[in-house]
Amino acid sequence: MIGIIDYNAGNVKSVERALDALGCEYVRATSPQALDAVSKLIFPGVGDAQYAMDQLKKSGFDAFLKDKVAQNVPVLGICLGSQIIFDFSEEGDTPCLGLIPGTIKHFSSIKKDFPLKVPHMGWNNLSHCTSDPLFDGIDENQSFYFVHSYVIQPTDASVILATADYGISVPAAVRKGSLVAVQFHPEKSGEPGLRLLKNFCCGGEE
Prior knowledge:
single chain; alpha/beta; eight-stranded mixed beta sheet
């Protein structure tokens, strides 16, 4: 059973529609207790890092996520859920979950006078930096849908699974153990996105 973390800062309806299309069994919950027995977790996120962290703390999902990652439960972070798993975000000067070492920086903090429009919004191709089961059956340079103004900057570059080119090299997918996260929205990325979600939820089995 897949658990969807609903902490009032995630695009849960879009994720539900994608899992419905895949025929995956899931439960969405607003309390950690309701998801304690699930086998995998999806951690979506949209909006502001500071608000999202406040909501995680109020709901108890901050400690819940830390416990589940420590127990090697597979977790998939999406969009903002791929950012606040790191130590700190420049957005609101926000201390985050600290599940992977690194910071989240605005495009302009990484490259002064950043030449492209921010947010990075729309379809962009991925380059797979390393082989990972998350991308089984997904071609190199496949396009996914992005919406973000802040960029993952991991301390250890070896956690990066894939990147996108948007004025700079944008880490688009990362993994540390059972925790994997994508900056783009697989649930809004058509067939490739559905394949990625299927890979996470059921190992890509037909």
